[in-house]
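Weekly puzzle thread! Below is a chain. First person to post its structure in token form gets bragging rights.
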Amino acid sequence: MTVRADLKNGEPAVLLGDAFFFGTLAAVRDLGRTGAAVSVAETHFGASHSGSSRYCLQRLKAPSLHDTSYLEWLLAQGENTPGAFLHATSDDMVWLMAVHEEVLRQRFTLFQAPREAVFALLDKCQLYAHARRLGIAIPQTHAPTHPDEVRALGQALQREGGFPVIVKPRTQACMSAKQKGSVVRSPEELSNAV
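Winning reply:
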């Protein structure tokens, strides 16, 4: 069931769930220019560029996306504006929407890729596997899952002159510290970095 929601003059309502991500500001401007009634969820109320945009109709005080109460808060917003379009502008929001798509669809209109596609894009191991199958060149990549594998990899890299290397999280989705990666120069640093 899709119910059209509006906040003003019959214009479609849009909720953007991550006001502090830079892509959100672009979405606020783009959607606002079309006449959509755009609301943004702000963890630190009044502190985002997205919420300050002239195209943002409403700023909503929200818990952190990393807080377990965020989904409950989001569902309550869906009760207030049934059928509003919920749009993801960050990896965290895309992941949350993929995990909870079924319950979110009961309150919001979504344009959401299937869960498997979302996970395949946001999980570097799956993304690299797809790239290899398609013949897309990627850097040499390892994904050890056990400390013994990390030690063996460190020793092999040391023998082959493979240091320095970059260690990156498998995904950044739902990580409170957004670390892109770190450079390690020895087997010992590698063991400490993962």
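Puzzle host: Confirmed. Bonus trivia for everyone else. The mean pLDDT is 88.
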